[in-house]
Design brief:
Blueprint (H helix, E strand, L loop, with lengths): L5 E8 L10 E2 L13 E7 L6 E6 L5 E6 L4 E5 L5 E5 L6 E6 L5 E6 L4 E5 L5 E5 L6 E6 L5 E6 L3 E6 L5 E6 L5 E6 L5 E6 L3 E6 L5 E6 L4 E7 L5 E7 L5 E5 L4 E6 L6 E6 L5 E6 L4 E5 L5 E5 L6 E6 L5 E6 L4 E5 L4 E7 L5 E8 L1
Antiparallel strand pairs: 1-32, 2-31, 3-32, 4-5, 5-6, 6-7, 8-9, 9-10, 10-11, 12-13, 13-14, 14-15, 16-17, 17-18, 18-19, 20-21, 21-22, 22-23, 24-25, 25-26, 26-27, 28-29, 29-30, 30-31
């Protein structure tokens, strides 16, 4: 629990037209100060009808996209969090999202084994990419936007030509499910993590395997490059459920950040590389100093697993997505609560009462 706060979370159903939940973000001021003893209440509406499993913010910082177990993708306007629209087309959980460097295209990956390309401006479906045989676990555009990489539980990665949606090549090198992928900011490397307890480094654009890094005694679930490409943050099921910072491109562990009590599902790094955020099955978000590995804050506000994290391009706001169906916003670097994104059409709200 956050130091100095006492929290009670209660879920209750309500009929449309009954208890009201405002669309977009409910901004809250004055909370999160452990010296204050004011009683605060906030209504946090559900963002999705199912677990929130993927988040991505476009490079301009104007749009947040979320993917869910309810099979939908939702687009939210930043910074106010207003709901812009819902994209329907997948038939199973949407667990991977990526936005092109020019903010034109949104890529989504689903447990239905498909990758879809959408035009971000109006939500038009442009293409469905077929080829994987098991759920999509990760997506990443190359920095020039010419290629899209996908990683799947079928153990393979695929490189796609964005211009026409054609398959360029299939990369085989993992023995078990791929859990996440990331491209280096300079576009020379594609990194993949797997339940086979390795990370593979692939050369771009040809996809040659250049290095395999052991992550034993566990595996990595989430990858996040620093803006300059010199650090890679990973979180997973490993020794002490730790977050690890790797020196890149050598792939050598630089720091290990321990504190989570269960598997880490998501990591994110601020653009200035000063802070790393992590979240997972222990239902907490942890903020860390990247330079020395020191713990800045533990946020215990969600009521279920933390599945996804994203940080705005200016580094000022952290966004979290959870199995509790909510999307929440946090001011950085302090980690103070900033609001939540909610869809007023959904018939559930979360009532949070706490002392701050």
């Amino acid at each position: 629990m956050i130091e100095g706060t006492a929290m009670h979370i209660e879920r209750r159903d309500f009929l449309k037209g009954g208890l009201a939940v405002a669309a977009g973000v409910l901004w809250v001021g004055g909370c999160g100060n452990s010296r204050s003893r004011t009683t605060c209440n906030r209504n946090i509406g559900d963002a999705h009808a199912g677990s929130v499993d993927a988040l991505v913010i476009d490079p301009s910082g104007a749009v947040l996209a979320s993917g869910s177990a309810d099979t939908s993708i939702k687009l939210w306007r930043l910074p106010d969090g207003a709901l812009l629209g819902t994209l329907a087309g997948h038939t199973q959980e949407v667990g991977a999202l990526a936005i092109s460097p020019d903010s034109v295209l949104l890529a989504s990956g689903s447990a239905d084994t498909t990758v879809k390309l959408w035009r971000l401006a109006d939500g038009a479906l442009l293409a469905t990419l077929l080829g994987h045989t098991l759920p999509i676990a990760g997506l990443a555009f190359t920095p020039d936007g010419a290629m899209l990489a996908s990683g799947s539980a079928d153990t393979t990665l695929k490189l796609w030509n964005v211009a026409d949606g054609s398959l360029l090549t299939t990369l085989a090198g993992h023995a078990l499910a791929v859990t996440d992928i990331a491209t280096s900011p300079d576009g020379t490397l594609l990194v993949s993590s797997s339940e086979d307890q390795t990370m593979n480094l692939w050369r771009l654009p040809d996809g040659a395997l250049v290095n395999t890094i052991s992550t034993q005694p566990g595996w990595v679930n989430s990858l996040a490059f620093s803006l300059d490409g010199t650090l890679l943050a990973t979180g997973g099921k490993n020794d002490g459920d730790a977050v690890v910072l790797w020196s890149m491109p050598a792939g050598v562990p630089a720091k290990t950040l321990k504190g989570h009590l269960d598997e880490v599902k998501a990591v994110a790094m601020t653009p200035d590389q000063s802070m790393v955020a992590s979240g997972g099955l222990d239902e907490t978000i942890r903020l860390w100093h990247a330079s020395n590995g020191g713990l800045v804050k533990v946020i215990e506000d969600h009521s279920n697993f933390i599945n996804a994290l994203a940080i705005t391009p200016d580094g000022k706001v952290l966004v979290s997505g959870s199995a509790d169906r909510s999307i929440r916003f946090w001011h950085l670097p302090a980690g103070a609560y900033a609001g939540s994104a909610s869809d007023p059409a959904l018939p559930v709200q979360v009532v949070v009462s706490f002392t701050c």
